[in-house]
Design brief:
The complex is a heterodimer of chains A (122) and B (340). In chain A, strand 2 and strand 3 form a beta hairpin. By secondary structure, chain A is of the alpha+beta class. Chain A has 2 domains: 91 residues, SH3 type barrels; 31 residues, no CATH class. Helix content of chain A is 20%, strand content 25%. The two termini of chain A are 21 Å apart. Chain B has a single domain, classed as Aldolase class I (TIM Barrel, Alpha-Beta Barrel). Chain B has 13 helices and 9 strands. In chain B, strand 8 and strand 9 form a beta hairpin. Chain B starts with a helix and ends with a helix. The chains are: A alpha+beta (122), B alpha/beta (340). At the A-B interface, strand 2, strand 3 and helix 2 of A face helix 2 of B.
Chain lengths: 122, 340
């Protein structure tokens, strides 16, 4: 994703033109943490890495914010999903890199190893 | 073609065994991603955009070996993330070599010299470093969005060769690549003494930072035709010559996504190394429950429309080699003559 729209901050209300399956698909595609709100009112914050609705009991799988898991949650137990974490695929690190390169050229002081794009997870 | 004879024979005999057993779908190369963490953030990469707790995770050696044992391919490729950042990379490679798997460790080589000096690896006919280099210095440093990486990688290659390791390179080409500069790059790699090179067009990851430079099919054919239509005899490619002909537009294959299955911290990735449409708990489940008919060019899936990446089409080329005498003859001919 470059400068395209991100779902970061989206708090969908299921049923008002937004089916649960669609929100789950978007959460699965989202590269950030989400908050899964269950029908019993409890919440789990984490990363949704899998979903399967081609089985008798459709489910999502996630790792929580501490990395524990995988945690399986049935579709039927989900009230909604809020897109609460930072979208790690949003922004434009490539454009930032190009801008920095141009700046370095114009100032004539290129720095070896200058890297406007943050290393991931290092 | 620079693949050692012993490796060629291992793969050929494996494929023939699968065919004699009547297996329609079988793996050739397991893409084993022990972690997503990386010390680069390349413009064309969509593999590493995850929250911190996911980037901190990695597979255990036991998980890796269980996946290899279940899948049981002749070749294991270890990409990532950056596998040299995986704390158990030494023991993992050692265990895979002990299983007589041909191992390709795909690395940006920033840490290569340091890890070699630490004595993490031993040279083996079963083990090769596959160093990511997308071109000469200017092109590569731009592709990986950091100055100085090319120089570090070349230093790592030299050190690995000096210590007797097998070293190959892997290069991803994007729209705007300069064919003449890439030909210079091939010369430079041969001068360095690498065993062989692997080339492939990039896949248009929806999560990659740069969305503007992925190659579309016709432009890919044009680029690879210019690159390879008059190859120098000294250039060695560590991949099927039929796949190279496919890149040039001389052949048409259908995708074989199960040929290079992917296992990582989420499980067995559906349907392939590039697309994430879900995960299976076992390789068996992956094979049996993935709707393969929904993928590949003939499926009409737009995510597959312009894909020509090696992980889907190199297994197709290998399959074609052993599917008929003509395929075998064409492969031998291209291998012997060095013409594509």
């Amino acid at each position: 994703m470059t400068d395209g729209a991100t779902l970061e901050g989206w708090t969908p209300e299921i049923g008002k033109g937004v089916p649960l399956e669609e929100v789950i698909d978007k959460a699965f595609d989202y590269r950030g943490n989400v908050t899964v709100v269950k029908t019993d009112g409890s919440e789990t914050v984490g990363y949704v890495f899998n979903r399967n609705r081609d089985v008798a009991v459709p489910f999502v799988q996630m790792f929580d914010a501490d990395g524990a898991g995988p945690i399986s949650i049935r579709y039927a137990d989900i009230r909604t999903i809020r897109f609460t974490g930072r979208d790690t695929a949003a922004g434009n690190s490539y454009a930032a890199w190009l801008r920095a390169k141009e700046l370095a050229k114009t100032t004539q002081h290129p720095e070896k190893g200058s890297d406007p794009a943050p290393s991931r997870g290092a | 073609m620079s693949v050692p004879l012993s490796q060629m024979w291992a793969i050929a005999s494996y494929v023939i065994r699968q065919k004699l057993a009547g297996r329609e779908r079988y793996p050739l190369v397991l893409m084993l991603e022990p972690l997503f963490r990386c010390n680069l953030a390349c413009a064309g990469c969509g593999k590493i955009q995850y929250p911190a707790q996911i980037l901190r995770k990695h597979l255990t050696v036991e998980q890796c070996l269980a996946a290899v044992d279940e899948c049981d391919p002749p070749v294991v490729s270890i990409p990532g993330g950056e596998p040299l950042m995986y704390p158990e990379i030494g023991p993992l490679v050692k265990a895979l070599v002990a299983r007589k798997k041909y191992v390709y460790l795909c690395t940006n080589a920033i840490l290569l010299k340091q890890k070699l000096e630490a004595g993490l690896f031993e040279p083996s006919n079963y083990f090769s470093f596959s160093v990511h280099l997308d071109g000469l210095r200017a092109e590569h440093d731009e592709a990986v969005c950091r100055d100085g990486v090319y120089v570090d990688a070349v230093e790592g290659i030299k050190e690995a060769l000096r210590r007797g390791f097998r070293v190959t390179t892997n290069s991803t080409l994007f729209d705007g690549a300069d064919a003449l500069r890439m030909r210079e790059f091939f010369d430079t790699m041969m001068d360095l003494g690498v065993e062989g090179m692997m080339i492939s067009p990039g896949y248009s990851y929806s999560k990659a930072p740069d969305q503007e430079h992925f190659l579309r099919t016709q432009r890919a054919h044009d680029l690879f035709s210019t690159l390879l239509s008059n190859p120098k005899r000294r250039w060695k490619f560590n991949q099927s010559p039929l796949f190279l002909q496919f890149l040039m537009g001389k052949r048409d294959f259908e995708c074989t996504p199960w040929g290079n299955p992917t296992y990582n911290v989420f499980g067995w990735q559906r349907p392939c190394y590039l697309m994430q449409e879900g995960y299976a708990a076992s390789f068996k489940e992956l094979l049996e429950t993935t709707r393969w008919e929904n993928y590949g060019r003939s499926s009409g899936n737009e995510k597959c429309r312009d894909c020509m990446v090696h992980c889907g089409y190199e297994p197709s080329a290998v399959h074609h080699t052993f599917a008929s005498w003509r395929g075998f003859r064409d492969t031998v001919q291209a291998t012997v003559t060095g013409r594509f």
